[in-house]
Amino acid sequence: FSQTSSRGRTLRPKKKIMDGGVNGSGLPVNNKQRAMLPNKSRGDFTRNSRKDSEGLSESPDLEFEYADTDKWAAELSELYSYTEGPEFALNRKCFEEEFRTHVSEKKWTELDGAEHRAHAMRLLDGLEVTAREKRLKVARAILYMAQGTFAECDSEAEVQHWMRYNIFLLLDVGTFSALVDLLNMEIDNTAACSSAVRKPAISLADSTDLRVLLNIMYLMVETIQQDDPADRPEWKIIRETFRTELGSPLFNNEPVSVMLFGMVTKFCSGHAPHFPMKKVLLLLWKSILFTLGGFEQLQTIKVHKREELGLPPLPEDSIRVIRSMRAASPPASASDLIEQQQKRARREHKALIKQDNLDQFNEKDPYKADDSREDEDDNDDSDNSIEPETFPLERDEVMPPPIPHPPSERVSFPKGLPWAPKVREKDIENFLESSRSKFIGYTLGSDTDTVVGLPRPIHESIKTLKQVCRRVAQHFINCGEEEVEMCATELLYQGILPSLPQYMIALLKILLAAAPTSKAKTDSINILADVLPEEMPTTVLQSMKLGVDVNRHKEIIVKAISAILLLLLKHFKLNHIYQFEYMAQHLVFANCIPLILKFFNQNIMSYITAKNSISVLDFPYCVVHELPELTAESLEAGDNNQFCWRNLFSCINLLRILNKLTKWKHSRTMMLVVFKSAPILKRALKVKQAMMQLYVLKLLKVQTKYLGRQWRKSNMKTMSAIYQKVRHRLNDDWAYGNDLDARPWDFQAEECALRANIERFNSRRYDKSHSNPDFLPVDNCLQSVLGQRVDLPEDFQMNYDLWLEREVFSKPISWEELLQ
User: Helices 277-292 and 256-268 sit at what angle, rounded to 10 degrees?
Assistant: First the structure.
């Protein structure tokens, strides 16, 4: 975008590209992919419906509803890459060969429950054989069952019905435990690992056994976690039992999620490059989501815990508030401002010609509305106008008066701010300290009740602050043994605690490799092992299909990792604040903040509207319907969706993670300033979706006071949007530069103090060796100590008389001192 200076010169800022390897669409094309795209320019294979140069007023509101997951069919289809398409028929063949040896005439859908169970038990026994080929055939037959025995179904709904029935049957006969054992065996298969390490190019064939096992496990977890009111009572019991077992250390003495985290780190270390990482991450995400619960369950747990601790109820449900919010108009870019000025000049020219018409309409402003907010919306001549709801009308010529609508057709929106204001107890203490220093000349520490000597307005201010003060539960270190509730979150934290830093680094490494702004480097990890075919494409059509598949593959990986990190942060924060701080600090140490900013340093509108999917190849559509012949034109057209659900979901998750890492952390907020995040975040406001805009505005709000007066002056629309959309902290001067905490020498001290507290917490609660005696719980009760039974050694009992004589009778005792 060009910008015009005060002297009339055109300034064109240099466009900084953080990494190469990005084609014209804003999506990555790595070196391997380049080799697969013959005789055609690489930028042709990725489709986008928007370009940077389009006017902002053309972007519509996105009808997106944020949830834990996408629709069930979409989540099922994302498990498979398009390269795996031929394996559906192979799974069916393996099942039918096995099935026909026992049942010759009937179809699977025609058998009764007892016959279904008998065949499932036979397949389960087949997993015990030692021959790898035989075991793989049986696993494929089980996978075909989990896929809904689709050859006997006529519609997608019927496939999903039989999927649910078959998966509950497989779970009931004990298939999942057998799959976990087989997966552990494949993880420890050193021959496969060493073979993959030596191979110059890894393809789909190197991970066949792992992919089949992970596919079955994912389908089981994803299907069972879907709560269907029509389920049988016994299925509901099986579902709850499975949820408990999945989060408990029953499988290999650790939760399944910990085993999957181990696969992630082994893959990133380079010891197992053939692991199908997309499937591992999807299974890890769904396992965490099922065992710990999603965002609705988090809200329920939060309300329940506040009741237990005697805290007042929350003033609002944040999920409902966000869903009811509307998107704001994004701030105008430099090119839009120039275009606006040109249109304004054209209007002034027309005004001279049509002065009579103007005089006629001067008597009554045709754009005047009853709502004062609409006055501000329509005033597009002012650079500082607030545009919370719609874009201003572009009035190139004088329009006739609008036709009045009946009142019933007007849509009314609630006036006022969406959030109840909030304040912390620490903020009240700081306010009282400064007031006492100013008016009395002394301070009282953390006393928030004594207001003697303070003026009446200060009394009223303190009363108002206390009314909106959000009390939180304090975690105290008690003197005795601490009682820890062994919930699923606690079990998971204990499982990943020893290697949590390595897990976070591994997840961020994969996220970096999958980010659209990353280029393929020689030392970066290869995340395409489970999408590249054995034989490279030879036609343009095959290359286009593979190009779509690779980009879709990366998008799904970003979606899974962003959801995993956000879920863990939210659950750990609710379980114990230091569990959250431990994970958050290691994410910060692993450069998560600049990585997320790098992810957003792209044409984010193109990323969100990217069409990297071929709907006719998605499961279960592809196994029920006759596939049409694919052409270059049909691939280029893509689907008709307004946006890509998974990409918008990923962007919101990454923004929420960034908010959680920086909230109330001055040193991390300054990292946002140092990495020049403001222009990157401001570009993300182009996406007209209320939830995404809210989290962008939150990140801008925390750094506004450090961006300078000129930035605030030239970004008044953004400032107005922050005021309207983001929760207010009553004594937070976010819009001004009057911050006393901007002390750069405190950055390291803040993180070090937090790290010391976290280490004390982990040592006290989880260090079984008790290497540091200072962290041992102390029993201070005299009766309890004297009442303890002490086992004395045998030689002491034999010489007890001598000990009494030497230590008691022969020593003088000053009873006065002892009694004092």
Answer: 150
